[in-house]
């Protein structure tokens, strides 16, 4: 049965407003499990380089995973970003949550955490009709409460086992060296973190990483595929933009 976004929102609000419920804390995912797969993941979008990332991946017969914010670099509901999200989905890439506004989650309370997670989930439901099964906490930061909230929301927490360092000042040469070092160890799988907001990562490091990983025999797939799992909890028809599709702040 398909549920309207309005009804879903009402149900989620009731969960947030109620006393904390008990459910198994979210599982924390670091590495892939399907042998000889590599998951290239990209944080902080949607942003202007989303199309470039997608084109590079698709040209190589690869798929990526995009952990999207709702209101970080730019509002997800802008016409340009709606088009980016739809294109990524249509090209077969996986969409996942990076929370609404990229806050330090361990500093938030129960209600604030639900709001940070739900608002970006709502955006993905509206724009492409998917409820993500994975959330990546900004900065990789989580605590027991973050795990409890994510678990209640039916999501797994996705970290990584190879950080390209692109947001902490690493040069493209240094990021490439990290891929070389990782591949040289011949791990069964690789799960990398990069950012679609960093031009050097997209234009320079990504093509290099693809070439090296494929030459080493890795199949470049989505995070869900490299885990043998589903990318979304459920799907429904996408919505139609109206005045409620905005990034206005909500009370905290």
From TrEMBL:
GO molecular function, a single term: hydrolase activity, acting on carbon-nitrogen (but not peptide) bonds
InterPro entries the record matches: Glyco_hydro/deAcase_b/a-brl (IPR011330), NODB_dom (IPR002509)
Membrane topology: Lipid-anchor; GPI-anchor
Principal cellular location given in the protein's record: membrane
Matches recorded under SUPFAM superfamilies: Glycoside hydrolase/deacetylase
GO biological-process terms attached to the record: carbohydrate metabolic process; cell wall organization
Pfam family, one: Polysacc_deac_1
CDD domains per UniProt: CE4_ClCDA_like (cd10951)
Name used for this protein in its record: Carbohydrate esterase family 4 protein
Keyword Metal-binding among UniProt keywords: yes
UniProt xrefs under PANTHER family: CHITIN DEACETYLASE, CHITIN DEACETYLASE-RELATED
GO cellular component: plasma membrane; side of membrane
Cell location: Cell membrane
Signal peptide: 1-18
Organismal lineage: Eukaryota, Fungi, Dikarya, Basidiomycota, Agaricomycotina
Names of required cofactors: Co(2+)
Keywords assigned by UniProt, alphabetized: Carbohydrate metabolism, Cell membrane, Cell wall biogenesis/degradation, Glycoprotein, GPI-anchor, Hydrolase, Lipoprotein, Membrane, Metal-binding, Signal
Domain NodB homology: 36-221
